[in-house]
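Lay summary

Proteins are chains of building blocks that fold into shapes. Our project writes down both the chain and a compact code for its shape. Here are two examples, one after the other.
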Amino acid sequence: MKLWGGRFKQKATKLVEEFTSSINFDNRLAKYDCIGTIAHIKMLAKAKIISGSESKKLVISLLKILSKIETGKFRFDKNSEDIHTNIQKELFKYAGKIAEVVHTARSRNDQVSLDLRMYLRDETKTIISSITELQTIFVDLAEKNIDIIMPGYTHLQHAQPILLSHHLMAYYFMLARDKNRFNCCLKRINIMPLGSCALAGTSFNIDRKYVAKLLGFPKISENSIDAVSDRDFVIEFIAASSIFMMHLSRLSEELILWASKEFNFIELPDTWTTGSSIMPQKKNPDVAELSRAKSGKVYGNLFAILTVMKGLPLSYNRDMQEDKENVFSTIDTVKSVLNIYLGMLPLVKFNKDIMRNAVYGDFSTATEVADYLVKKDMTFRLAHSLVGKIVLYCIKENKNLESLTIKEWNKFSKLFKADISQIVKPENSIYSKISEGSTGVIAVKKSISSAKSHLRSE
């Protein structure tokens, strides 16, 4: 049964039917197709376009179909080209000939946009909720490990001592931006297109706002041409997902590095790692590596949909059928990686002593020495040059800043006093940071407290 067969004398070839079919992937929209059609039917009855008895019979029939879909009992017909045709065919079985009226004042063009928006709305909310869970884990880890000092890195070189908690909270704020992007995207997903029909609207006196209310949409689309040809919300969702996956890829990279023998900053749980088929000693961070790799799949989905849309004239074109696999793939990937980190991250063990020892003898308090001199009225540029010479001296003499005597300090400047031996200690470097948002203990504890309050209020 085709929704468009009346125009044609001959059937499409089997190859064309297979090539244009989307039921293999758009079947996951089945639930939303039923829900959207129920709202449409109720609106048709309210507008007296169909009778109350017709509406009741159709709604009851669709609820039965919906129940079959939700319990996994619905059998999708591969010979029916898309999800709309599948639902329509099933509706005929339950309601008979009156099933034909559901196409009044509606097209598959606005119908598929509606289905996709409802589906994406639910999935986006689920992803946002999971990101909040992941943020909570980072805050908990930061609070639990507030006493761990580690090297802060720039260019993957030791830079300055920081609190591990400060490093962990950086991911909390990355995720906050991700969540904000998804929430902003959700506003543009949450626009009701039904009633735009093929592209020009309808001559029937329909009530689009009533349908929007039934389906939980705060707004209706304002231009019927734009409504059926808009996939900005899809592109925006995948773009937000790409940035999110980039953040988790960076996290993956750090965990992989930190779990190596060279760093040995962390130990990954056995339950979230794998072994080698030939090397018995290996404990591989495979899930972190796969998470890192899967960002590429999401980036590919973004470029695919951008390429599909870039040359399309208004309004709807069949090219747009290709949006769904990109969306579905992105959602599945994002959710799978989220679930990995929700399970693995709380079980990561931080090697406190190794992380702390890594900041001794690495010259990472050199900036504190320069600041010390600046506070004694030396310009920072001159102080920077002088401390560089002190570091060269230490390297030549096989010493570190912590081991220099006051006599050695004074060879470079009489401004150095006995208190310089305390200034160069990594712990004191941490405590010296007093600016808001810094790695100072007070600032980090404030950040953790603020984050906990924010998460509780969401």
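And here is the second example, written the same way.
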Amino acid sequence: MQPVHEWIYQLDEGRVGRWLKYALVAAVLCIVPVFFNLRVYRGFSQPEAMDQAQVARNLAERRGFSTLFIRPFALQLLTDKAQRDKRMPVPVSRTNSPAANLHPLYWPAQLPDISNAPGYPLLLAACFKLPVIQRQFSIPANGVRFRPDFVINALNQGLFFLAVILVFLLARWLFNAQVAWWSATLFLLTDVFWQFSISGLCTLWLMVLMLGMVVCLVGLERCLAADERTGGRQWAWSIVLGILLGLCGLSRYALLCLAIPIAVYVLVGPWRRKLWLCAVILAVSAALVLPWLARNYRLSGTAFGTVSYAVQQGTWSVPDSRLQRSLQPNLAAISAATLVDKLRDNLSVILVREMPLLGTGWAGLLFWLTVLFPMASETHRRLRNLCLGGILLLAVVEALGQDHPASVQSAIAPDNLLVLWYPLAMVFGVALFFKLLGEYRHELREYRGLLFLGLLGVTSLPLLACLYGARGSGQEEPRVSPVILQRFARWMKP
């Protein structure tokens, strides 16, 4: 009977049982994305996702950072700068139409893109250049699935699983294995991130970069705990942090503001030579960002291209995306009071609707309770305060940069910046949950399992409802289906 008992032990608690658990987790991670794509995906609905995808295609085809998405406002900026630099003659127009000032012979077939940050399109272009994927693109698109969209979805879901791993490691380093497993599980069951994984947006790429920056800060804290205040590891973490900060700014210009809370975090910390550490972080990030900003200024006269006017867009005088469709918008009519009104209206909606849930789900509510409890560790307190300051800063940036009223904005939108702080906030919220369970373990002994099931159910219920209520695969709008458009395009010359 001894071999039988040994086999049962190995199956239940030993090596075999652990491998069975890992195999079950791996099977779930492989099956759920396939099932979610088949049930929910209906094509990209965000114009920014399709715009960045076609820029990535041009990069992969060695046509440079160019676009076929013609924005009249971008064309006007490019023309005005070319005329000021005498690279283009100023036409003598006999009409008063602004379009008559656009020289049709100057611009090539591929217009330089000044509306997208380069980070995410470069990532997509690198993915498109893989030989396995290039062979798939050469096959005619006769099915209902457009292969480039499928590649983008697979990349984003890979980034999603990478973010899950980073959440686990971050929670393990900051707290313990129990908090790490529950944080990763709740993050994996959050419906909004699955929706972002099939949206084609760069949100999950930005979240991986954000988690990488937090991991670098935790690495600096671990160097401090190990009394390596002036060692080489500290400078290495600072350089990597500067690279990730620069990549964040190159992927979405609005996130350059994160340099402020990170610099404050380093300057108020107990590190030696913290001024030099902060200088290294900012210098490395600036070395990545400034060449691209110089390129934009050389082409359009603005450092961020059309994004430089994102604050003016969405006001009552320039509503929605009207600015991008204008050749000569009356920007002088937009006063400071108009911008204050935009900030007030959008921020009030963000404070009420998005900030309590951090733009995602109910698990974000746990984070706000950490403000009421003292932190046992200085590292935890500094990271919690960094998260609080980053949330408030990005709320203001999001309110100013939205081109539509916040009351009509969807959670799955490129302007949703608060969602980037959700992983760190959720780790602190889960840690507080276990801390309260430990302090009141005798009083809550009978309700412990119910509390765990409640937290798990509240987090996963939107995902289950989405999977149950989905209507199946296929494009929701056949008019914008890439497969149908390709079939019609074959009837005509390029």
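What can we say about the second shape? Residues 472-476 have pLDDT under 50 and may be disordered.
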